[in-house]
Amino acid sequence: MANQAAKIIDQFEKGELELKGCYKHLNNFERHKLQQLWSKLIDRFDVPVNDLVGANNSLIKIETFSADDKQVSQKDIPKGVIYNGCKFGETVADKVGEPVVPVKYENICENDTLGAYIWQTFREDVPDTLVLRFLRARKWDVDKALDMILAAIKWRFANNIDEIIYYGESANDASLMFKGTSFIHGVDKLKHPIVWAPSAKHFQKDQSFSQVKRYLICIMEAVRQMLHYPHERVCLIMDLTNHSNSNMDWPFTKMFLKLLEAYYPECLAVAIINNGPWFFSGVFKMIKPLIDPTVAQKIQFAKNADGLLKFIDQDQLLKSRGGKNDYEYKYILPDPKENLLMANKELKQEAISKRKEIIKELIQITKEWVAAGQKVASYRTEPPLSGITHAAGASKDSGSSTTIAASESASSNQTKKEEAIRTELELHKKRDECQERLAKASLELDSFTRARNIYHRLGCFGLHRI
C-alpha cells in the first residue's frame, strides 16, 4: 500500500494520467476481457432486472441500507432553524415556493429488462467507460465484474436513481444544499475535478438518513457528468478542518464507502484527508476495515497547504486552504424557468427516438465485434503446424510434399489470422465511433430527463463531452 501511495504522488509530480485499462487504452488481453463481459451482459438482455442472476446463477443481491434508513420520530426532529433559514425536512422546492420541475417524472424505459434499463445506467457515458470501471475494479476477472455491474444496475433500478436525477436538487434537503457539505470546484494537477467535503458543516441530526442518501446520490451523479475521457476520475478532499465528534455520522460514512466501492467504482484518482484533528487517527482505525483495498490505496494525508499543493496548483486551491483561488461555495436556488424544456414532449420524444436507433446499431456492432474477437482468440489456441514426422521408409519426395503442404497450410492460417485481427480492429474502431454518437445523443436527451443543478447555473458543463 505504501508503494501505491508513492506511485500516486509520483504520477502527480510527473503529470502523468493513469490510463491503463481505460477507454481507448486497452491491450489485446483487456479488449478481449471487455468482449467477454459484453457477451455475458447481452445474454441477459431479456431478463427482468429484479430476476438477474450472476456468473454462478445465484440471484444478484444489493445493499439496501435499510438498517439505517429509518423514519425520524417527532421527538427527535430539531425545532427551529437549522441553517440559513431552513427548517428540518424543508426541500429546495419549498424554498423556491413554486414548482421547479414542470412535469412529473415518467419512466422512459420500454420495459424492466436488463436490455432496456442498462442504457439508463450508462446515461451520457460512453458505455465502455462504465463497463471498464467494473473490470478494473475486479482485476479483469470477467465473472466477478459481471456480478458487480449487475448489482450496480439492480441497485439503481431498486432506488429509482433516474427519478432522483430527474427532480435533482429540487427534492433535496435545503439545509444540505445551502451548507455545501460537498461541492465540486477546480481541478487537480492532472485535471481531475476536485470534490470538496468539509466535514465541519455536517451534522447527522440536521436531516434524515433518506435525505442525506438522496443528497449523496445527487452529488455523485453530478460528478459523473464531469468525468469524461481522458479524465475519468476525481480528486476527493475530505477536509477535516474544525472537525469535531459532533460531525461524525457513522451510517453516512458506511453508505458513502459502499457506494464508492460497489456502485461507483474506479471513480477515484486520489482521496486526500486534510487537516485531521488529533483524535482522527483513532477514528480512521475504526473506518479502515470498511474501506475497499483498492480505495484505501488511493488515500493520502495532508496537514496544511504544503500537503495539498502536492496535488493541486495554487490557482486551483481555495484561499481558505492556503491557495490563491477566490471561490467560496454559495448555493444558487433554481430558477423555475430553467427546466421548461423538460415539458416539451415532442422534442423529448425525438431525442428518445434518436438515442434508440443508435442503441440498436450499437448492439448489432457489439455482437459482431464480440464474434470477431472470439474468432481471433480461436487462432491463438490452435496448435502450431510444426514438428510433423513421417513414417519410416517414406520416400524423400513424399516427405518434401508433406513439408510443402504444411508450410502452405501454415501460411494460409497466418493470412486468415491477420485478416481476422484486422476485421476485429476495424469493428472496434467503428464501435467506438457509435458509442460516442450514443453519448452525444444521450446528452441531448439529458435536457429532458435531468433537472438543472448548481453546476449548470455556474456554467460548468460544455455542450459536448466527447
UniProtKB/TrEMBL annotation:
InterPro entries the record matches: CRAL-TRIO_dom, CRAL-TRIO_dom_sf, CRAL/TRIO_N_dom, CRAL/TRIO_N_dom_sf, PITP/CRAL-TRIO
SUPFAM superfamilies according to UniProt: CRAL/TRIO domain, CRAL/TRIO N-terminal domain
Domain CRAL-TRIO: 172-329
Bias-annotated ranges (Low complexity): 398-412
Region (Disordered): 388-419
Name the record gives this protein: CRAL-TRIO domain-containing protein
